[in-house]
Give the backbone structure.
Amino acid sequence: MLPTIFLLLACQLLGETFHRLTGLALPGSVIGMILLFAWLALVPRERPTLTIVTGWLTAHLAVMFVPAAVGLVNEGEALKADGVGLVVATAISTFLTMAVTALVFRWALNRFGPLDTVETESDSPA
Amino acid sequence: MTGLLATSLFWLAVTLGVFEAADTVSKRSGRRPLLHPVLWSTPVLIGLLLWTGTPYETYQQATFPISFLLGPAVVGLAVPVWAQRARIRRLAVPIVLALGAGAITSIVSAVGVLSLFGAPSEILASIAPRATTTPVAMAIAGQLGGVPALAAVIVLFAGVIGAMFATPLLNLLNVRDYRARGFAVGVAAHGIGAARAFQVDSTAGAMASLGMALNAATTAALLSILVLLV
């Protein structure tokens, strides 16, 4: 368990370091995600503990952003001024994004197709 | 007695308790998007802060152990993507094209429509990462000079309406392929959309989680490139 937690924190720390050195707007945790992906590709092997730990984290993601969402208590002014715009823009953007993504995906699927049309069980993690 | 209201012990217990209650209601409803636990525990906790006269900064520090977990959780999103590498390779072209189109549409339409309302730049920065999963959106919004709390709530709202309208919208567009449907829901409505997609079809659900994780990285990259250019 401890090596797994270390792996996650080490990726995040490296990401954070990279972020600070380059001043890139990419958050340290997102760079860490890319680093972890690279690590999994470079050193391929079974990692049952990593799957369990990240599965647990993902399953409890919702509660982790409650403290930040409560920060809205300080945003009364912004909500009063821009609340309507935020609701309208979010709704329109969500619908448009879903439509564009689905249509482009379908078009590309018909045009270029999957390299292998049958979705098989080999999809599950090797 | 009043000192207790400034401790981690108190606010961690209260936050988890309130969240658990909201989560139980959500579970009993069969995970209806409108009963998302964050949507209901947040106003209750805000009410408790106002009632006890606790400043948000005190609450924020007290609940740091919970928010700290967001970082490692974001890093861990690499694992489900890695598990789906075979599918990604097979669907590489549709995934890359749809992801690019979706991520750009999301940023441009959200910022574009909101700027028509004359919103100031820190509000625009808060809506730009609208389509990513909440922890990533908060991190990006913070980077861009936006308000993480606002980003969190915008993302939640996007997830809720995305999950509610995915089926009618995609039926209307006559997109029947579950891979295309699931991927679109994940890109547009992140985890809440993915949860809804899993209720409909397991392929759609897997594609939705893939869309969510890939879009988190893509939107973050696009916005940081944008920042370098501007």
